[in-house]
């Protein structure tokens, strides 16, 4: 196998690409519901460029994906995923199940393993019998499944600690919203590359609720 376009770049520089724009993503499950939340900052390292940047995208009413990492790659990857889901919907005349979509994301990322999208996806959806499904994966598509919560982005270390403290099984939607919001806001305060409020989607079998959180603006 010949050299790739990244073969001469030190590993540390590759890691810095994931930290270039800054991000915080978390998905958490409740009783027949789930919530997914992100911060709203778009930065160029320590310089803030925008404070209303979208990092969570709706695939359909019961399936969302959050993309942490390099913002340009995230937008490109979402466009490819939305296109593939539309093709699936036209052919099968049904929405894609979360497990199927996770496999699609993994396959698309692995296709580009020698020149990857610098993204870490967080996938959350309601599957059969409205059972919540969440997972994350690395930039080449290695899946990590969970039954409680998953995190991604530059604030992931503090998110792990906050979610471990906040999570409890079988939460009702409003309690789930409160806990994921507190976990997100407390975590981004400890990460200088993410912050400027939060964006939360709360999904139940009957509705999708979108809310904006106000946080520290510094």
TrEMBL record:
InterPro entries linked: Ntn_hydrolases_N, Proteasome_beta_3, Proteasome_bsu_CS, Proteasome_sua/b, Proteasome_suB-type
Location within or outside the cell: Cytoplasm; Nucleus
One cellular component term from this protein's GO annotations in UniProt: cytoplasm
Pfam families for the chain: Proteasome
UniProt cross-references to Gene3D superfamilies, sorted A to Z: Glutamine Phosphoribosylpyrophosphate, subunit 1, domain 1
Subunit note: Component of the proteasome complex.
This protein's name: Proteasome subunit beta
Organism (species): Buddleja alternifolia
């Amino acid at each position: 196998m010949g050299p790739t376009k990244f073969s001469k770049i030190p590993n540390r520089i590759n890691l810095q690409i994931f930290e270039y724009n800054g991000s915080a993503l978390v998905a958490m499950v409740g009783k027949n519901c789930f919530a997914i939340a992100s911060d709203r900052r778009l930065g160029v390292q320590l310089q803030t460029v925008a404070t209303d940047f979208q990092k969570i995208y709706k695939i359909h009413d019961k399936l969302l994906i959050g993309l942490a990492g390099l913002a340009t790659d995230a937008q490109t990857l979402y466009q490819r995923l939305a296109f593939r889901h539309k093709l699936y919907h036209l052919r099968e005349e049904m929405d894609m199940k979360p497990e199927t979509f996770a496999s699609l994301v993994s396959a698309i990322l692995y296709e580009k393993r020698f020149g990857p999208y610098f993204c870490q996806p967080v996938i959350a959806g309601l599957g059969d019998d409205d059972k919540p499904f969440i997972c994350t994966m690395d930039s080449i598509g290695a899946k990590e499944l969970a039954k409680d919560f998953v995190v991604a982005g530059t604030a992931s270390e503090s998110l792990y600690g906050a979610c471990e403290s906040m999570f409890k099984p079988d939460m009702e939607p409003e309690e789930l919203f409160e806990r994921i919001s507190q976990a997100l806001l407390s975590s981004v305060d400890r990460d200088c590359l993410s912050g400027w409020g939060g964006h939360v989607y709360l999904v139940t079998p009957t509705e999708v609720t979108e809310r904006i959180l106000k946080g520290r603006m510094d």
